[in-house]
Write a structure and sequence with these properties.
InterPro entries: Lipid_II_flippase_MurJ/MviN, MurJ. It is a multi-pass membrane protein. This is Peptidoglycan lipid II flippase. Helices cover about 80% and strands about 0% of the residues. It is mainly α and about 550 residues long. The longest helix has about 35 residues.
Length: about 550
């Protein structure tokens, strides 16, 4: 456990710095192009496309398949060098082809999402941005391919620290754009070809840099890497069969996401839309990334090792311990973000009213935060056993629910039940509902596969955390009201909004830990041990 603790601490630190610089990056970007506007949503859509298309590869092959396969390959005579060389060669070819096809299909992809409700100039601007942003697919893929190999070799740090360089480059580029062209540039007519090139090019250069930096750490793997197009005889057929299900799963998720975006764009230029949803998701991902990815990633490597060795009892122990640990830290963070939702949203918006609309979207996403953390462990346990078929079916079920809830949100809006200002939040709430149902189904299926995973014990622990989080969030909301509420100084500007979060969060966490102490939660003992590790003795 000490090695897992050190790996988690290193990942948490890197992820924290990465996310904080990412937040700064978004703040600067909002200052340049705004939070609500047609041009803003055009760039958001184009810059999101590489992530969406890359997810086909990332979810389809890298996360689900490669880590377990690399863990097994490392046990071979050559330490996995032959297998990994072939994987990297094949992966590079796939990434180049995918990037080229995506760029050729850029106008079609944009028109698929931007329905007739958007204007032709907005669609043309989105296509122009897409040509500059879509090369990110290749660099995202290279970054993930190297990073997953480093993780499989238990070299966890660089994967989370490299994005800091991307954020720093982007911040500098966005500030330069603001100085050159003025701010904000949220009107479609403001965007000339040189301005488009500066913004799109800056975003892509940052992604390329983080991949190159990660490549510098490859020698630490002690693996010989060379181009190898002889793809037969080392198990790539098995990888292909496993990846088939996860690729189908990623296609379903991508289609559901496209449909969500098309519904949210109904409000583009008038109310909270795609950009607000992306920024709310960024805040949502801060506790998820810092806590879930930093703790869960080392556990996934350990799960893969135990599953490969057939030690099911140890896998069950890993599942319960990981979920309880995630839940303990995550519920405290969730309570803090809920209480500070409006000032946190003000950091990424241009006014108090925009902050309130964005906070509604954020709260809707937060409903699904804890289930998503549980799903992270459950889904990756299936992957550790080489089962990608079962996750495909319960993810397909989630995608159907996402489309159904987004369609329902649009119907309610057309009927006048959901106002345009709440359309994005309703779509986000539908996604959270779908995630909750998906997590329940996935947990039941995994419990059947392993003949029990100690569900009752860790569910009771999660309920204990929820009980502690409710008064903690209420206390934080009370502090927010004492600071003036939605029309107080914390929503006057971005810096006051950040200061409001700094004031509210400690109160929430203190109440959360206090209630857990009253409940005599055993997880506090683990926290005390962790604190003793980092605080020198007297």
């Amino acid at each position: 456990m000490s090695s897992l603790g050190r790996a988690s601490a290193l990942l948490a630190a890197g992820t924290m710095v990465s996310r904080i610089t990412g937040l700064l990056r978004t703040i600067v970007l909002v200052g340049v192009i705004g939070a609500i506007g047609e041009a803003t949503d055009a760039f958001s859509l184009a810059n999101q496309l590489p992530n969406d298309v890359f997810s086909l590869i990332s979810v389809g092959v890298l996360t689900a398949v490669l880590v377990p396969q690399i863990v097994q390959a490392v046990a071979g005579e050559d330490g996995g060098s032959a297998f990994i060389s072939k994987i990297f060669t094949a992966g590079t070819v796939v990434l180049l082809v995918t990037t080229a096809v995506a760029m050729l299909a850029a106008p079609w992809l944009i028109s698929l999402i931007m329905k007739a409700t958007t204007t032709p100039p907005q669609q043309h601007l989105a296509v122009a941005f897409a040509y500059w942003c879509l090369p990110q697919i290749f660099f995202y893929g290279l970054y993930a391919l190297i990073g997953e190999t480093l993780n499989a070799r238990r070299i966890f740090g660089p994967f989370t620290w490299a994005p800091v360089a991307n954020n720093v480059i982007s911040i500098a580029g966005f500030l330069l754009i603001g100085g050159m062209f003025g701010t904000p540039l949220n009107t479609v007519d403001d965007w000339t070809p040189d301005r488009i090139a500066w913004l799109g090019g800056t975003a892509t250069i940052g992604i390329a840099l983080q991949a190159v930096i990660l490549l510098a750490f490859w020698p630490r793997t002690r693996l010989a890497l060379r181009p190898d197009f002889r793809w037969r005889g080392v198990g790539l057929g098995k990888v292909g069969r496993l990846a088939g299900w996860t690729t189908l799963m990623a296609v379903a998720s991508l289609a559901a996401g496209f449909y969500q975006h098309s519904i949210a764009l109904e409000a583009s230029g008038r109310d909270a839309s795609l950009t607000v949803m992306n920024n709310a998701w960024l805040i949502f991902m801060l506790p998820y990334s810092v806590i879930v990815l930093s703790i869960g990633t080392p556990y996934f490597t350990q799960l893969s090792e135990h599953a490969h060795a057939g030690r099911d009892d140890e896998v069950r122990t890993d599942i319960g311990r990981a979920i309880r640990t995630l839940g303990f830290f995550l519920m405290g963070a969730l309570a803090a973000v809920l209480a500070a939702a409006i000032p946190a949203s003000r950091v990424f918006t241009g006014s108090s009213s925009e902050a309130q609309a964005a906070a509604l979207v954020l709260v809707a996403y937060l409903v699904g935060l804890l289930p998503l953390a549980v799903l992270f462990i459950v889904q990756r346990t299936f992957y550790a056993y080489g089962d990608t078929r079962t996750p495909f079916f319960f993810t397909l079920f989630q995608c159907v629910l996402i489309v159904a809830t987004a369609y329902g949100a649009n119907l309610l809006h057309q009927a006048g039940v959901v106002p345009l200002s709440a359309l994005a939040a309703t779509v986000a709430l539908g996604q959270s509902f779908a995630s909750i149902v998906q997590t329940i189904v996935a947990t039941v299926l995994l419990s059947r596969r392993l003949t029990g995973i100690g569900t009752r014990r860790w569910v009771l622990a999660l309920l204990r955390f929820v009980v502690a989080a409710i008064p903690a969030a209420a206390a934080g909301w009370g502090v927010f009201l004492l600071l003036g509420g939605a029309h107080g100084w914390t929503t006057a500007d971005r810096i006051p909004g950040a200061l409001g979060c700094v004031i509210i969060a400690p109160v929430v966490l203190a109440v959360y830990l206090g209630v857990l102490a009253l409940l005599r939660a055993p997880e506090l003992d683990a926290l005390k041990t962790l604190v003793r590790r980092f605080v020198p003795s007297r």
